[in-house]
Design a protein that fits this description.
Blueprint: H1 2-10, H2 17-42, E1 43-45, H3 54-57, H4 62-71, H5 78-92, H6 105-118, E2 123-124, H7 125-128, H8 139-144, E3 150-151, E4 157-159, H9 166-170, E5 174-179, E6 193-201, E7 212-216, E8 226-227, E9 239-247, E10 250-255, E11 264-265, E12 271-274, E13 277-280, E14 297-299, E15 304-311
Parallel strand pairs: 2-3, 6-8, 13-14
Antiparallel strand pairs: 1-7, 4-15, 5-6, 6-7, 9-10, 9-15, 11-12, 12-13
Helix pairs in contact: 1-2
Protein backbone atom coordinates (compact mmCIF):
# COMPACT_ATOMS: atom_id res chain seq x y z
CA UNK A 1 0.00 0.00 0.00
CA UNK A 2 2.71 2.45 0.98
CA UNK A 3 4.77 1.58 -2.10
CA UNK A 4 1.84 2.42 -4.39
CA UNK A 5 1.26 5.67 -2.50
CA UNK A 6 4.92 6.73 -2.74
CA UNK A 7 4.96 5.88 -6.49
CA UNK A 8 1.91 8.09 -7.00
CA UNK A 9 3.52 10.92 -5.05
CA UNK A 10 6.67 10.61 -7.17
CA UNK A 11 4.66 11.40 -10.30
CA UNK A 12 3.54 14.81 -9.00
CA UNK A 13 5.54 17.30 -11.11
CA UNK A 14 4.98 20.48 -9.11
CA UNK A 15 4.13 19.47 -5.55
CA UNK A 16 2.31 22.03 -3.46
CA UNK A 17 2.71 22.71 0.24
CA UNK A 18 -0.24 20.43 0.88
CA UNK A 19 1.44 17.71 -1.20
CA UNK A 20 4.56 17.98 0.97
CA UNK A 21 2.42 17.68 4.10
CA UNK A 22 0.78 14.59 2.66
CA UNK A 23 4.20 13.09 1.92
CA UNK A 24 5.37 13.79 5.47
CA UNK A 25 2.25 12.21 6.97
CA UNK A 26 2.68 9.18 4.74
CA UNK A 27 6.33 8.83 5.80
CA UNK A 28 5.42 9.07 9.47
CA UNK A 29 2.71 6.41 9.12
CA UNK A 30 5.07 4.19 7.15
CA UNK A 31 7.81 4.44 9.78
CA UNK A 32 5.28 3.71 12.53
CA UNK A 33 3.98 0.64 10.69
CA UNK A 34 7.55 -0.53 10.07
CA UNK A 35 8.41 -0.19 13.78
CA UNK A 36 5.26 -2.05 14.84
CA UNK A 37 6.06 -4.89 12.43
CA UNK A 38 9.62 -5.11 13.75
CA UNK A 39 8.43 -5.04 17.37
CA UNK A 40 5.94 -7.83 16.71
CA UNK A 41 8.84 -10.03 15.64
CA UNK A 42 11.03 -9.00 18.58
CA UNK A 43 8.67 -8.88 21.57
CA UNK A 44 5.69 -10.81 22.87
CA UNK A 45 3.01 -9.53 25.24
CA UNK A 46 2.32 -11.44 28.46
CA UNK A 47 -1.31 -12.62 28.32
CA UNK A 48 -1.58 -13.28 32.08
CA UNK A 49 -0.86 -9.72 33.20
CA UNK A 50 -2.49 -6.27 33.44
CA UNK A 51 -6.07 -7.53 33.89
CA UNK A 52 -8.54 -4.84 34.93
CA UNK A 53 -9.50 -4.80 38.62
CA UNK A 54 -12.97 -3.52 37.70
CA UNK A 55 -13.72 -6.95 36.25
CA UNK A 56 -13.69 -8.31 39.82
CA UNK A 57 -14.70 -5.37 41.96
CA UNK A 58 -18.35 -5.33 40.90
CA UNK A 59 -18.95 -9.02 41.74
CA UNK A 60 -21.15 -8.96 44.83
CA UNK A 61 -20.82 -12.58 45.93
CA UNK A 62 -18.62 -15.64 45.45
CA UNK A 63 -21.06 -17.34 43.08
CA UNK A 64 -21.05 -14.35 40.73
CA UNK A 65 -17.26 -14.24 40.85
CA UNK A 66 -16.93 -17.98 40.18
CA UNK A 67 -19.33 -17.83 37.23
CA UNK A 68 -17.40 -14.94 35.72
CA UNK A 69 -14.03 -16.64 36.16
CA UNK A 70 -15.30 -19.94 34.76
CA UNK A 71 -16.43 -18.24 31.54
CA UNK A 72 -13.90 -15.45 31.08
CA UNK A 73 -11.26 -15.82 28.32
CA UNK A 74 -8.90 -13.91 30.62
CA UNK A 75 -8.74 -16.90 32.95
CA UNK A 76 -6.57 -19.49 31.20
CA UNK A 77 -4.72 -21.15 34.09
CA UNK A 78 -5.07 -21.99 37.78
CA UNK A 79 -2.86 -19.06 38.86
CA UNK A 80 -5.03 -16.43 37.20
CA UNK A 81 -8.11 -18.03 38.80
CA UNK A 82 -6.53 -18.22 42.26
CA UNK A 83 -5.23 -14.64 42.04
CA UNK A 84 -8.70 -13.39 41.17
CA UNK A 85 -10.35 -15.10 44.14
CA UNK A 86 -7.53 -14.12 46.50
CA UNK A 87 -7.60 -10.45 45.40
CA UNK A 88 -11.40 -10.31 45.61
CA UNK A 89 -11.43 -11.79 49.14
CA UNK A 90 -8.69 -9.39 50.25
CA UNK A 91 -10.66 -6.41 48.98
CA UNK A 92 -13.98 -7.59 50.46
CA UNK A 93 -12.69 -8.63 53.90
CA UNK A 94 -14.30 -6.97 56.94
CA UNK A 95 -10.94 -6.67 58.72
CA UNK A 96 -7.68 -8.62 59.05
CA UNK A 97 -9.35 -11.46 60.93
CA UNK A 98 -12.90 -11.38 59.56
CA UNK A 99 -13.56 -12.67 56.03
CA UNK A 100 -16.33 -11.41 53.78
CA UNK A 101 -17.27 -15.01 53.04
CA UNK A 102 -16.02 -18.46 54.03
CA UNK A 103 -14.80 -20.80 51.33
CA UNK A 104 -16.88 -23.97 51.08
CA UNK A 105 -15.89 -27.48 50.10
CA UNK A 106 -18.23 -27.11 47.13
CA UNK A 107 -16.20 -24.18 45.82
CA UNK A 108 -12.96 -26.17 46.15
CA UNK A 109 -14.53 -29.08 44.26
CA UNK A 110 -15.68 -26.71 41.49
CA UNK A 111 -12.18 -25.25 41.24
CA UNK A 112 -10.70 -28.74 41.06
CA UNK A 113 -13.16 -29.81 38.35
CA UNK A 114 -12.48 -26.64 36.35
CA UNK A 115 -8.73 -27.23 36.58
CA UNK A 116 -9.09 -30.83 35.41
CA UNK A 117 -11.53 -30.08 32.58
CA UNK A 118 -9.45 -27.13 31.34
CA UNK A 119 -6.15 -29.01 31.49
CA UNK A 120 -4.62 -26.50 33.91
CA UNK A 121 -1.47 -27.23 35.89
CA UNK A 122 -1.84 -27.33 39.71
CA UNK A 123 -0.66 -24.45 41.87
CA UNK A 124 2.88 -24.54 43.22
CA UNK A 125 2.97 -24.97 46.99
CA UNK A 126 5.53 -22.17 47.15
CA UNK A 127 3.02 -19.86 45.48
CA UNK A 128 0.18 -20.22 47.98
CA UNK A 129 1.60 -21.54 51.28
CA UNK A 130 2.23 -18.06 52.72
CA UNK A 131 -1.30 -16.83 51.90
CA UNK A 132 -3.19 -18.25 54.86
CA UNK A 133 -4.60 -15.21 56.70
CA UNK A 134 -7.98 -15.49 58.42
CA UNK A 135 -9.42 -12.80 56.13
CA UNK A 136 -9.31 -15.24 53.19
CA UNK A 137 -12.03 -17.40 54.65
CA UNK A 138 -10.01 -20.61 54.43
CA UNK A 139 -9.21 -20.31 50.69
CA UNK A 140 -5.60 -21.49 50.86
CA UNK A 141 -6.11 -23.90 53.76
CA UNK A 142 -8.82 -25.79 51.88
CA UNK A 143 -6.84 -25.80 48.62
CA UNK A 144 -3.88 -27.35 50.46
CA UNK A 145 -6.05 -30.30 51.48
CA UNK A 146 -6.84 -31.14 47.84
CA UNK A 147 -3.93 -32.97 46.20
CA UNK A 148 -5.26 -32.21 42.70
CA UNK A 149 -4.83 -28.48 43.22
CA UNK A 150 -1.25 -28.30 44.52
CA UNK A 151 2.19 -29.49 43.41
CA UNK A 152 5.49 -29.63 45.29
CA UNK A 153 7.45 -28.91 42.11
CA UNK A 154 9.84 -26.05 42.97
CA UNK A 155 11.57 -26.11 39.57
CA UNK A 156 8.80 -24.06 37.99
CA UNK A 157 9.64 -21.04 40.16
CA UNK A 158 12.12 -18.78 38.31
CA UNK A 159 13.37 -15.71 40.23
CA UNK A 160 14.95 -12.77 38.41
CA UNK A 161 18.71 -12.36 38.77
CA UNK A 162 18.30 -8.91 40.37
CA UNK A 163 16.04 -7.10 42.79
CA UNK A 164 14.88 -3.49 42.53
CA UNK A 165 13.53 -0.51 44.40
CA UNK A 166 10.09 0.65 43.25
CA UNK A 167 11.70 3.57 41.40
CA UNK A 168 14.13 1.26 39.61
CA UNK A 169 11.42 -1.21 38.64
CA UNK A 170 8.64 1.14 37.55
CA UNK A 171 10.26 4.42 36.50
CA UNK A 172 13.08 3.23 34.20
CA UNK A 173 13.37 1.44 30.89
CA UNK A 174 15.34 -1.70 31.69
CA UNK A 175 15.64 -5.47 31.26
CA UNK A 176 14.74 -8.06 33.89
CA UNK A 177 16.89 -11.16 33.41
CA UNK A 178 15.96 -14.75 34.28
CA UNK A 179 18.08 -17.90 34.07
CA UNK A 180 16.06 -20.67 32.42
CA UNK A 181 16.98 -23.85 30.59
CA UNK A 182 14.69 -26.63 29.44
CA UNK A 183 15.85 -30.22 29.86
CA UNK A 184 15.89 -31.00 26.13
CA UNK A 185 18.50 -28.27 25.55
CA UNK A 186 21.51 -30.41 26.43
CA UNK A 187 24.34 -29.23 24.18
CA UNK A 188 24.18 -25.44 24.38
CA UNK A 189 27.55 -23.86 23.58
CA UNK A 190 26.42 -20.25 23.46
CA UNK A 191 28.08 -17.59 25.59
CA UNK A 192 26.45 -16.71 28.89
CA UNK A 193 23.47 -18.28 30.65
CA UNK A 194 20.43 -19.77 28.96
CA UNK A 195 17.43 -17.68 29.94
CA UNK A 196 15.07 -14.94 28.93
CA UNK A 197 14.50 -11.22 29.37
CA UNK A 198 11.38 -9.30 30.28
CA UNK A 199 11.79 -5.77 28.91
CA UNK A 200 10.21 -2.97 30.94
CA UNK A 201 8.88 0.22 29.40
CA UNK A 202 8.84 2.80 32.19
CA UNK A 203 5.65 4.26 33.65
CA UNK A 204 5.17 7.98 33.29
CA UNK A 205 3.81 8.08 36.83
CA UNK A 206 0.27 8.77 35.66
CA UNK A 207 -2.63 6.35 35.47
CA UNK A 208 -2.12 5.51 31.82
CA UNK A 209 -0.92 2.62 29.69
CA UNK A 210 2.71 3.74 29.41
CA UNK A 211 4.09 0.96 31.62
CA UNK A 212 4.66 -2.37 29.90
CA UNK A 213 6.47 -5.67 30.33
CA UNK A 214 7.20 -7.82 27.28
CA UNK A 215 9.11 -11.02 26.64
CA UNK A 216 12.08 -10.44 24.33
CA UNK A 217 11.90 -13.20 21.69
CA UNK A 218 14.54 -11.92 19.24
CA UNK A 219 17.88 -13.58 20.21
CA UNK A 220 19.83 -10.74 18.55
CA UNK A 221 18.57 -8.32 21.22
CA UNK A 222 20.17 -10.26 24.06
CA UNK A 223 23.42 -9.14 25.77
CA UNK A 224 26.52 -11.33 26.08
CA UNK A 225 25.72 -12.64 29.58
CA UNK A 226 22.38 -14.27 28.69
CA UNK A 227 20.86 -15.80 25.55
CA UNK A 228 17.45 -16.96 24.36
CA UNK A 229 16.64 -20.21 22.58
CA UNK A 230 13.92 -20.14 19.93
CA UNK A 231 12.67 -23.42 21.43
CA UNK A 232 11.63 -21.40 24.48
CA UNK A 233 8.95 -19.46 22.61
CA UNK A 234 6.31 -21.43 24.54
CA UNK A 235 7.18 -19.17 27.48
CA UNK A 236 4.84 -16.56 26.03
CA UNK A 237 1.69 -18.41 27.09
CA UNK A 238 3.15 -20.26 30.06
CA UNK A 239 4.62 -17.73 32.47
CA UNK A 240 2.90 -16.09 35.40
CA UNK A 241 4.57 -13.01 36.88
CA UNK A 242 4.55 -12.23 40.61
CA UNK A 243 6.68 -10.16 43.00
CA UNK A 244 8.76 -11.15 46.02
CA UNK A 245 8.91 -8.06 48.24
CA UNK A 246 11.61 -7.92 50.93
CA UNK A 247 11.45 -5.57 53.91
CA UNK A 248 13.33 -5.56 57.22
CA UNK A 249 10.85 -8.08 58.69
CA UNK A 250 11.35 -10.61 55.93
CA UNK A 251 10.05 -11.43 52.45
CA UNK A 252 6.47 -11.46 51.23
CA UNK A 253 6.55 -14.14 48.54
CA UNK A 254 4.49 -14.44 45.35
CA UNK A 255 2.64 -11.14 45.71
CA UNK A 256 -0.07 -11.12 43.07
CA UNK A 257 -0.36 -8.33 40.49
CA UNK A 258 -2.42 -10.14 37.83
CA UNK A 259 -5.70 -8.25 38.34
CA UNK A 260 -4.31 -4.85 39.32
CA UNK A 261 -3.84 -3.21 35.93
CA UNK A 262 -0.58 -1.28 35.63
CA UNK A 263 1.54 0.46 38.29
CA UNK A 264 1.49 4.23 38.69
CA UNK A 265 2.10 6.97 41.26
CA UNK A 266 -0.50 8.45 43.58
CA UNK A 267 -1.19 12.14 42.99
CA UNK A 268 1.12 13.22 45.84
CA UNK A 269 4.09 11.60 44.00
CA UNK A 270 5.20 10.01 47.27
CA UNK A 271 4.12 6.47 46.43
CA UNK A 272 4.20 3.96 43.64
CA UNK A 273 1.29 1.60 43.78
CA UNK A 274 0.36 -1.53 41.87
CA UNK A 275 -3.08 -2.45 43.10
CA UNK A 276 -2.91 -3.10 46.84
CA UNK A 277 0.90 -2.91 46.89
CA UNK A 278 2.05 0.59 47.87
CA UNK A 279 5.71 1.57 47.88
CA UNK A 280 6.81 4.70 49.71
CA UNK A 281 9.45 6.87 48.02
CA UNK A 282 10.50 8.78 51.12
CA UNK A 283 10.64 8.39 54.89
CA UNK A 284 6.99 9.30 55.43
CA UNK A 285 4.63 6.51 56.37
CA UNK A 286 1.25 8.18 55.96
CA UNK A 287 -1.44 6.68 53.77
CA UNK A 288 -1.30 7.57 50.10
CA UNK A 289 -4.30 9.30 48.60
CA UNK A 290 -6.16 8.76 45.37
CA UNK A 291 -6.28 4.98 45.79
CA UNK A 292 -8.65 2.58 44.06
CA UNK A 293 -8.63 -0.37 46.48
CA UNK A 294 -10.32 -0.73 49.87
CA UNK A 295 -7.29 -2.25 51.62
CA UNK A 296 -3.58 -1.97 50.93
CA UNK A 297 -0.18 -3.24 51.98
CA UNK A 298 2.39 -0.52 52.66
CA UNK A 299 6.12 -0.95 52.07
CA UNK A 300 8.85 1.49 53.14
CA UNK A 301 11.38 3.17 50.88
CA UNK A 302 13.97 0.44 51.61
CA UNK A 303 11.77 -2.36 50.26
CA UNK A 304 13.32 -4.48 47.51
CA UNK A 305 11.27 -6.10 44.76
CA UNK A 306 12.32 -9.26 42.94
CA UNK A 307 10.14 -10.26 39.98
CA UNK A 308 9.47 -14.00 39.97
CA UNK A 309 8.02 -16.06 37.15
CA UNK A 310 6.11 -19.30 37.64
CA UNK A 311 6.50 -21.48 34.56
CA UNK A 312 3.41 -23.48 33.62
CA UNK A 313 4.88 -25.54 30.81
CA UNK A 314 7.08 -28.63 30.71
CA UNK A 315 10.72 -28.21 31.69
Amino acid sequence: MYQRLFKTLEEIENPSTEDFRLIMRAMQQYNKALKEMKDSMSYAALPNLFHDWQELEDKEDLDALTNFLSESPLVNNSYVFYDAVYSWLFDKMIDNTTPFVSISETFIEEFSDLMTNSGWKPLALKYIEIKTTLSLGGLTDKILTNSNLVTNNYLNRIPSTSEYTSEELFARNHDIKFKFKQEFITNCRKEGDCGFILRVTAATGKQDDSFNIQLVIDPSLYPDDIHFHRESLMLVDNIHLTLDITVHKGTYSACSVTWYGKPCRDHTNKYWYWGVHHFCNDSEGSQASGLTTKWMTMYGSTAKIRPVVYYLGTL
